[in-house]
Amino acid sequence: MAQPVNFGPLAHQPAYRLGSEKIRHAIISGEIEAGELLPTETDLAEQFGVTRSTVREAIRLLEHVGILGRADRKRLVVTRPGTEAVGRSVSSAMLMHQVTFEELWQVAMGLEPLAGKLACLSATDAEKQLLADNLVRTREVMADHDALLEAEIDFHNLVAQASHNSALLLARAPLNELFYPAWGAVIRALSPGERILVAHQHVYDAICAGDQEKAEEWMEKHMRDFRRGIELGNLGFDKPVRGQV
Amino acid sequence: MAQPVNFGPLAHQPAYRLGSEKIRHAIISGEIEAGELLPTETDLAEQFGVTRSTVREAIRLLEHVGILGRADRKRLVVTRPGTEAVGRSVSSAMLMHQVTFEELWQVAMGLEPLAGKLACLSATDAEKQLLADNLVRTREVMADHDALLEAEIDFHNLVAQASHNSALLLARAPLNELFYPAWGAVIRALSPGERILVAHQHVYDAICAGDQEKAEEWMEKHMRDFRRGIELGNLGFDKPVRGQV
DNA sequence: TGCTGACATATTGTCCGACAATATGTCAAT
DNA sequence: ATTGACATATTGTCGGACAATATGTCAGCA
After folding, report:
1. Do residue A111 and residue B106 have CB atoms under 8 angstroms apart?
2. What's the number of domains chain A is made of?
3. Domain CATH for B213
């Protein structure tokens, strides 16, 4: 049987998508740098040869990813997407894929010890100080579950930041949104404040001493504690994390 | 000195953002499931009490992240963001942060061996077959640099998929966009086809045998080869990856 | 001088109404 | 059963309009 020619679809892109791609490209290629102002909507409309409404749609397309933002809630400005923006979009995706706590935990086991290890190499004195402050604060709020969770999340963020690896920082962004909040249930159920503090303390010591293996090892231990907590509390280790976002 | 009351800013959100949040929430909370159609723009406009233009902006805000898409390039449909959508948005972020190849490599060292390890536990026969096919293909195209790179990327995607961990799949999405393409330069410079194949073969064997340690170990070896290749070819291990996106 | 207020200006947020292009559904004709 | 004609629904794009708000300017006043 003679197959008729397959032309494939006539990839006709709507104008707002073309415009958004053009802007995106200009930004990523470095033609426009972070912090710079974009032309006004009217100007863009004129340049693209479309109406302002279309330009606006093109802009919105990029805004949610964090590439564009408002400087003074007026003019558009090119921004570097922070961990929040990335975390938000990736965790929406994970939520829709019904990611289980176990799956997140496995990813965390891949990334968090790595963060600890790298922090040993790159942490500055200022960052070590921030970690020390965090330990103090953690001890203070040990009884307050919400504050404890916040301190806990903070600690891991500080470690990640001390790794001075932006790729890692962004890759682990969704953990902040999904993994650690789920941990809140464990804290309320088991009050493992002391155990958390011990682990953090060891990680901190290792970072100060520049002892990579120890940092990695204690981060792993810490993560295993997470897992044990969820299992002990029977909090649905193999069930999808639900989004409180 | 008596501090005057601090009211904080009057967080006035534009309507298109409110609308987008409302839709996003409905989707994430499961009120609307993936695959379902959204009401028409006119309906949404009526429900929200705004004009269609505003609704359209709200929709665009979500479209780029992959939560919304076109079913038949007409009606809006709720979609699960795939690795492409996530990869695209996260890698834009990484590019703007001037992520270096070294940083990406470190993340890959955290995730790829993990993927190999998990694949040992979860790979189905069909997935093993796909891996086997990939090995055959890799051997065939060993001389063709572009095709080889494609096969290489494919292999790692297949392994990741065999891990049956969506969180991992999404977390490593940016690697596909930035890390492996950079590897293309190495292939052209050093033609390490044979070395790649050997590593892949060992990973494949380990997965078939269910030998987690071996899979992990060979993935690590493979990654170290990457790094060595970049260093040997003097291809800018510590320089920002440039986006060809 | 330094602060305040009035005013013009630029830019975004929102609205309205309109039309073309395209996918869908229906029904008659072949 | 396939085709063609036609009405319908929905999106893509247009153009113009106005309100709200941030910025800049400048005179007035202590």
Report:
1. no
2. 2
3. 1.20.120.530
The CA-based diameter of chain B, rounded to the nearest angstrom, is: 79
Distance from CA of B108 to the nearest CA of A (A): 9
Tell if A15 CB is < 7 Å from nucleic strand C. Answer: no
Substitution target in A50, A70, A77, A89 with the highest count of B β-carbons within 10 Å is A89
Per the structure, the complete domain to which residue A176 belongs is given by: 84-232
B20 touches strand C (CB under 7 A): no
Distance CA A234, CA A211 (A): 35
Same domain, A36 and A116: no
Cα A79 from Cα A88, distance rounded (Å): 16
CA distance A42 to chain B (A): 16
Alpha-carbon gap, residue B200 to B154, rounded angstroms: 11
Contact flag A81-B99 (C-beta cutoff 8 Å): no
A11-60 confidence digits (pLDDT tens): 678 899 999 999 999 998 888 888 888 888 999 999 999 999 999 999 99
Which among A56, A78, A100 is the end of a domain? A78
Go through chain B and tell me how many residues it has.
245
A213-231 pLDDT per residue, tens: 999 999 999 999 989 988 8
The answer to whether the CB atoms of A171 and B171 lie below 8 A apart is yes
Q: Does a structural domain hold residue B9?
A: no
B227 and B205, same structural domain?
A: yes
One domain for residues B176 and B94: yes
CB A151 within 8 A of CB A138: yes
